[in-house]
Automatic annotation (TrEMBL):
Organism: Canis lupus familiaris (Dog)
Gene this protein is translated from: NUDT13
Cofactor(s) listed in the protein's UniProt record: Mg(2+)
Key word Hydrolase present: yes
Keywords: Hydrolase, Magnesium, Metal-binding, NAD
NCBIfam families named in the record: PRK00241.1 (NF001299)
Nudix hydrolase domain span: 194-321
Pfam families, per the entry: NUDIX, NUDIX-like, Zn_ribbon_NUD
Phylogenetic classification of the source organism: Eukaryota, Metazoa, Chordata, Craniata, Vertebrata
GO MF annotations in UniProt: hydrolase activity; metal ion binding
Reactions performed catalytically: NADPH + H2O = reduced beta-nicotinamide D-ribonucleotide + adenosine 2',5'-bisphosphate + 2 H(+); NAD(+) + H2O = beta-nicotinamide D-ribonucleotide + AMP + 2 H(+); NADH + H2O = reduced beta-nicotinamide D-ribonucleotide + AMP + 2 H(+)
E.C. number(s) listed in UniProt: 3.6.1.22
Top class in the EC scheme: hydrolase
Protein's recorded name: NAD(+) diphosphatase
Length: 348
């Protein structure tokens, strides 16, 4: 393994290596796998593969808990052989992380039409029987897994490769590197990197209440914070102010960054979450019905109660509103405000 400890000391020595923390060696190892196709191929030999079918991750259920099983390269080759597939399909896998011991983790979709193999997608039902699990809709899967497994199962990279198989300049097929961190057009030499769209999400407060809204496409009864894609040329602050003005007709007073999250739906977004406040007396909402179905101010008690009983699968019948599930950054933002309502009015 060729690891070095930094710009000041590029020696490949045990002494140098020992100076680096586990986290740093892990990130350097992943960097190496993204840059070096041979190193990544070698890593596949001892690596672990997570399986997907048309972007739905394979989950197995044991004792009321769901887990995403891992397969070795050998197991994967045997599986493909059993279904009459050539092992070239493994070239479609993408690097998604590694363990502290540098076991590399890959994601492979058996349902998408393969770019490296002539064979089309594998039969889902037959695979599920063979693998003793089920390919589960990603949204559902994310809410059934623990946070660590859920973050591994992001399908954004698989989806991006599936949708970027041709060069937009030459029209020729592009080729992914082994790790899947880029695609190159052999004809135009253009390098394509995975893209994501910045999205702002804002919980607006008037000091005692917070503003929640819903789109008609949301599950029945669910309310969330205001969200919107950033326009080209905008700063995050400008995007937050514009989205709030556009969607509910309010002008913001203070704005405070909270946290961020990668979000796989509908494609690949970087959600940037903020708390914001409006001027006292300037709280009258004018809902933009082209964007939202409804919006309103909710008291601290109402929101705290909704957080306590939050379960999307049981809340839809009795007419009460419910909030996005724990894994969504909207939930974290709302929880933060419930725990500390002054967070939106404190200086940034
Ligand atoms: N993780 C969370 O907690 C959370 C919570 C709420 C919303 N979200 C996500 O935030 C995203 C944006 O929210 P929104 O729908 O209110 O956005 P929005 O208010 O900007 O409205 C969506 C519209 O913006 C336009 N648009 C501009 N740039 C776009 C792009 N790059 N991709 C797609 N559409 C684009 C389209 O016309 C689209 O219909 C959604 O995809 C949603 O999944 C995540
Ligand atoms: Mg919006």
């Amino acid at each position: 393994m060729s690891l070095y400890c930094g710009i000041a000391c590029r020696k490949k020595s045990f002494w140098c290596y020992r100076l680096l923390s586990t986290y740093v060696t892990k990130t350097r190892y992943l960097f190496e796998l993204k840059e070096d196709d041979d190193a990544c191929k070698t890593a596949q030999q001892t690596g672990a593969f997570y399986l997907f079918h048309s972007l739905a991750p394979l989950l197995q259920k044991s004792e009321q808990r769901y887990q995403a099983p891992q397969y070795s390269l050998l197991e994967l080759e045997r599986l493909l052989a059993k279904f009459g597939q050539d092992t070239q399909r493994i070239e479609d896998s993408v690097l998604i992380g590694c363990s502290k011991q540098h076991e590399a983790w890959f994601a492979l979709d058996l349902g998408l039409n393969s770019s490296s193999s002539l064979n089309a997608s594998l039969q889902k039902a037959e695979m599920e029987i063979e693998l003793k699990g089920s390919f589960t809709d990603l949204r559902k899967a994310l809410f059934q897994l623990n946070t660590k497994d859920a973050s591994l199962l992001t399908t954004a990279l698989l989806r991006w490769h599936d949708a970027h198989q041709f060069c937009s300049r030459s029209g020729q097929p592009t080729k992914k590197n082994v790790a899947g961190s880029k695609r190159v057009c052999p004809s135009s030499k253009i390098i394509y990197y995975p893209q994501m769209a910045p999205v702002v999400i804002t919980l607006v407060s008037d000091g005692t209440r917070c503003l929640l809204a819903r789109q008609s496409s949301f599950p029945k009864g669910m309310y969330s914070a205001l969200a919107g894609f950033c326009d080209i040329g905008e700063s995050l602050e400008e995007a937050v102010r514009r989205e709030v003005a556009e969607e509910v007709g309010l002008e913001l007073e203070r704005l405070k960054y909270s946290a961020s999250q990668h979000w796989s739906f509908p494609n690949s977004s970087l959600m940037i979450a903020c708390h914001a406040s409006v001027k006292p007396g300037q709280t009258e909402i004018q809902v933009n019905l082209k964007e939202l179905e409804a919006a309103g101010w909710f008291s601290h008690d109402e929101v705290a109660t909704a957080l306590r009983r939050n379960n999307p699968y049981t809340q839809q019948q009795n007419g009460t509103f419910w909030l996005p599930p724990k894994l969504a950054i909207a939930h974290q933002l709302i929880k933060e405000w419930v725990e500390k309502p002054s967070c939106s009015t404190l200086p940034a």
